Amino acid sequence: MADSCSESELYGVLLYYKFTPIPDLEQLLSFYESNCHSLHLLGRVRLARHGVNVTVGGKLSNVEKHIDAVKLISLFEGTDFKLASCHKPSNDRVAQECGFTSLSIRVVKELVTFSSHPLSDSPEISNAGKHLSAIEFHSALRSAGKHVEENSSKRVILLDARNLYETRIGKFHTPSVETLDPEIRQYSDLPSWIDKNSDKLRGNSILMYCTGGIRCEMASAYVRSKGAGFENVFQLFGGIQRYLEQFPDGGFFKGKNFVFDHRVSVGSSDGTVLGACILCSSSYDDYSSRSRCTYCRMLVLVCDGCRVMTSLYVCELCQTSGKGVGSGRSYENGELQETLTCTDLEAVSTWDHSAHSPHSLRRNGTMTLRKLRILCLHGFRQNASNFKGRTASFAKKLKTIAELVFIDAPHELAFIYLSSQADPNPNHISLSPESNSAPLSKSCNKRFAWLVDPDFNGKGGDDWKVADSPFDSLQYQQQKEGFDESLVYLKKVFSQAGPFDGILGFSQGAAMTAAVCARKASLKGEIDFRFAILCSGFAVNMAEYEQQSIHCPSLHIFGNDRGKDRQISSQVSRDLASLFEGGSSVVIEHDSGHIIPTRPPYIDEIKHFLKRFI
């Protein structure tokens, strides 16, 4: 696609952050909701008591209007607005994974999650390292060799604050300057790396850098908080993005700058390819395919040729920890099958692959792909049998890659019916027979729930009862009790019927699934799974998790505004999706209401998500 385009086609991506006390968070939230929606901006806005972090895109002229509006707010004085013009996202899948197909505005506890430990206090931003402009940073690197000669006891050290997959396609390289690459999966792993490698940092001048600057604010403050010997910490103001703008030929930066939007990466005029395919080691630095490690889901570089051969990859970190497979092909029962050859027999002997991985060990020393096992949680006032029946077409479409396992929820509900005539309230939904008399109990299976009303008495029974009031489509907002009992029940299911690769929840089942995802770390060893599918979902019992991203690969499926889901509004499901970490969540909006779609292109997108875990 050509670099130039008309004004109507020109698109802009804007990144900025600001650490400053926010006196009225609700007012600022209202500003962003009103401004961004009116300008049709897409992306992520994160607000906290101590500042904001924004990545949005849209028509260039509208993004510029947004900047002008933000500048009128005194809180943002001195903010560095990093605006880049580009084309609109051409790859819907990349844009969706990067969060550029919708607008997510959330109030969070931390603008960036610096520690994976929920009780760890964030470092004081006021103690962050000194800002160096791109020119000052460049000058410091250029003169580093001279500094080493003058004072051999004090060195200049470059510290990359980014994740491993980012550093694999671009980094600073300067003769006579040691660059420390922590090789971390995620930013929250950086504090522990700093703790373990403090001897390499103590007593030296540390030049820190990241993509746009915000990660260095937290990381440099953490290094300086270690006290004596850690005072000389500096950070590249505006990050690699501002440096490449100042030095279009790349300067001391080699390769490409990974970015968290649909552009994927931004390079210099130098054109150096630093990355390499993880399988064949050929020069390659394009993450557009969004290929991920089979085990940990971290992005990996896989060239076009190797992707044709296999969809199973193992990242460097998983290889280092003893996980490794090689791909191959074999014939069984006259059919060509993709197989995996174990490259670490010791790892296999100490870990039950047949139970916990997507592969099954064969006698000839290879592993063949098995289906994913997905535990399915039905909606309110449903049961395993009718949910299985309603999803029969869905299960059939996935039969080659997934096995769906259906269970009843633990809370048995009473049979109820409406005796009054239809209520005119549009929020009320009639679920009763046309007759005013009680239906025959023998014709109905028991109904269950994962969450119940506060006044639930725990009694089901076989007799029909007249409902106290018309059925309300918003009743799910009151059903918040019974979670602990349902959680204990799920632990038992995982223990006796597991393992499961993922959990699929529909409506209230999705609410239950989301609550389990939020507690995934604390449930390790009792409820282990690798992904979640949330259909027509909503958030319940999630207040404590609204200020931090949920770290669990997730697929969110719900009806769009045209879909007219009369039970769960599309915005409620979008709000739930926004609670999950953007980099590992996928959203599918369809036009079919309160169902799980089984027609193209939706079923193809669902299959694509699931194949990441095979």
TrEMBL record:
It comes from Escallonia herrerae. SMART domains: RHOD (SM00450). It comes from the Eukaryota. This is Rhodanese domain-containing protein. Residues 152-252 form the Rhodanese domain. It holds the Pfam family FSH1. PROSITE patterns: RHODANESE_3. Transmembrane segments: none annotated.
